[in-house]
């Protein structure tokens, strides 16, 4: 399975093409829209999310509720585009105000490096594509991957475990809970005391013209043993998950299982003992490895965490340099999120779901769901008697 996304933040629409989804998979548009709605919410989001109402249109690869095996095309409209039609026009428009040219790069963004690399004196041509608006399509694609995983009883869930300096108490995420952003769960954190503090911190940061990052955790259960491989660097599942999560805008670190904590502990407190029982077969007495050993799934829950940096656009702006005059300036502000960690946790769930679905399609024949189901059942029977 592979996918590409296209589309600008303020262009007419966003597009994704996914190839390699097995045929005959029951396909639900509502399930995609449900995930899209989850991504739009969360305490700390800016005004743009009040304009957008992300809903997917499926333009290929699905017929009468089932995938056909052909590439699946998904599109989501940018409602804000109506306000940007001239600025984002495909046809040339006159120099001047109509273009809303950007000559002042924002610190922490792709603007300056992208402009130099792609020979663009108007940095709008960079920022429109580097924007995290693109994560809409990653979530849409991830929602298709989740539907494939569901067919094998594999579930994916996510939560926020840290915002700024507020660290949530470690509470195991119930795998069948898709935490939605509601009045009772504005930050998607299971530790409700910490969540109140997180909200306060976000409000304070917003008032101070500042921004916040945090940590998100994704959990996957129901995995067969042996997804990924130890034999080649680019088949190692830990490396692939890290790439999937680190490629989300503003993500700067990934850990699996106890991750960075392992550095400060002796081996006896890091590795998990192997046990066997008639009922469960081979398991581990602890799960510090987070479900991966030797870059392959070991059947235990997969635990992946990602660190998101604070949003770079600040209402109390940082200094930068105008590329026309080379004069210093203090960045001007239109609108921005002050904290997008709750939304990003939904994106991280999607990124992990896609990578796991891809690994499933590599491990098992995957032209059709029928082939795949048959092979997964056989493989599970084999692992049980191993
Ligand atoms: C869901 C989400 C929403 C974001 N919203 C904003 C935003 O409103 N303003 C902003 O400056 N950056 C925002 N970002 C982060 C930038 O897109 C990102 O920092 C930038 O593209 C530079 O990429 P890098 O941080 O990965 O280097 C958001 C990121 C995510 C995942
Ligand atoms: C549009 C989304 O997030 C955007 C991501 C983003 C950025 O720079 O990454 C900047 C903001 O864009 P705008 O300036 O249009 O408000 C966010 O709103 C979204 O998540 O759907």
UniProtKB/TrEMBL annotation:
A Pfam match: Chorismate_synt
Keywords carried by this UniProt record: Amino-acid biosynthesis, Aromatic amino acid biosynthesis, FAD, Flavoprotein, FMN, Lyase, NADP
Pathway assigned in UniProt: Metabolic intermediate biosynthesis; chorismate biosynthesis; chorismate from D-erythrose 4-phosphate and phosphoenolpyruvate: step 7/7
UniProt: NADP(+) binding residues: 39, 45
A single cellular component GO annotation: cytosol
Residues annotated as binding FMN: 129-131, 249-250, 294, 309-313, 335
Molecular functions (GO terms): chorismate synthase activity; FMN binding
Cofactor: FMNH2
Enzyme class: lyase
Keyword Amino-acid biosynthesis annotated: yes
Gene3D superfamilies per record: Chorismate synthase AroC (3.60.150.10)
Gene Ontology BP terms: amino acid biosynthetic process; aromatic amino acid family biosynthetic process; chorismate biosynthetic process
Cofactor info, note text: Reduced FMN (FMNH(2)).
EC number(s) reported in the record: 4.2.3.5
Catalytic activity: 5-O-(1-carboxyvinyl)-3-phosphoshikimate = chorismate + phosphate
Role description: This reaction introduces a second double bond into the aromatic ring system.
Matches recorded under PANTHER family: CHORISMATE SYNTHASE (PTHR21085:SF0)
Assembly mode: Homotetramer.
Family assignment from sequence similarity: Belongs to the chorismate synthase family.
Designated name of the protein: Chorismate synthase
Native source species: Brevibacillus fluminis
Gene: aroC
């Amino acid at each position: 399975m592979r996918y590409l996304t296209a589309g600008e933040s303020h262009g007419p629409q966003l597009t994704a093409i996914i190839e390699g989804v097995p045929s005959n998979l029951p396909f639900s548009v509502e399930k995609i829209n449900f995930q899209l709605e989850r991504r739009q919410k969360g305490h700390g989001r800016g005004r743009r999310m009040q304009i957008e109402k992300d809903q997917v249109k499926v333009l290929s690869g699905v017929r009468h509720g089932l995938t056909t095996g052909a590439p699946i095309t998904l599109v989501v409209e940018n409602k804000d585009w109506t306000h940007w039609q001239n600025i984002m026009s495909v046809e040339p428009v006159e120099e001047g105000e109509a273009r809303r040219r950007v000559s002042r790069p924002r610190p922490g963004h792709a603007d300056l490096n992208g402009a130099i690399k792609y020979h663009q004196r108007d940095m709008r041509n960079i920022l429109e594509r580097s924007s995290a608006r693109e994560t809409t399509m990653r979530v849409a694609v991830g929602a298709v991957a989740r539907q494939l995983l569901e067919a094998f009883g594999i579930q994916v869930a996510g939560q926020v475990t840290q915002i700024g300096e507020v660290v949530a108490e470690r509470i195991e995420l119930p795998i069948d809970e898709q935490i939605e952003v509601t009045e009772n769960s504005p930050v998607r954190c299971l530790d409700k005391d910490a969540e109140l503090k997180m909200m306060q911190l976000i409000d304070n940061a917003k008032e101070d013209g500042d921004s916040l990052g945090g940590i998100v955790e994704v959990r996957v259960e129901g995995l067969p043993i042996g997804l990924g491989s130890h034999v080649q660097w680019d088949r190692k599942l830990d490396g692939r998950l890290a790439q999937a999560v680190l490629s989300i805008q503003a993500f700067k670190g990934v850990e699996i299982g106890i991750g960075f904590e392992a550095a400060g502990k002796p081996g006896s407190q890091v590795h998990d003992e192997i046990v066997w029982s008639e009922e469960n077969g081979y398991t581990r007495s602890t799960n510090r490895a987070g479900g991966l050993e030797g870059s392959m799934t070991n059947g235990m829950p997969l635990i992946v965490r990602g660190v998101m940096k604070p949003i770079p656009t600040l209402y109390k702006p940082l200094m930068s340099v105008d590329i026309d005059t080379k004069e210093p300036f203090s960045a001007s502000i239109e609108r921005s999120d002050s904290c997008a960690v709750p939304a990003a946790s939904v994106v991280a769930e999607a990124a992990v779901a896609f990578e796991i679905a891809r690994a499933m399609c590599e491990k098992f024949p995957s032209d059709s769901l029928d082939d795949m189901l048959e092979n997964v059942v056989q493989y599970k029977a084999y692992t049980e008697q191993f």
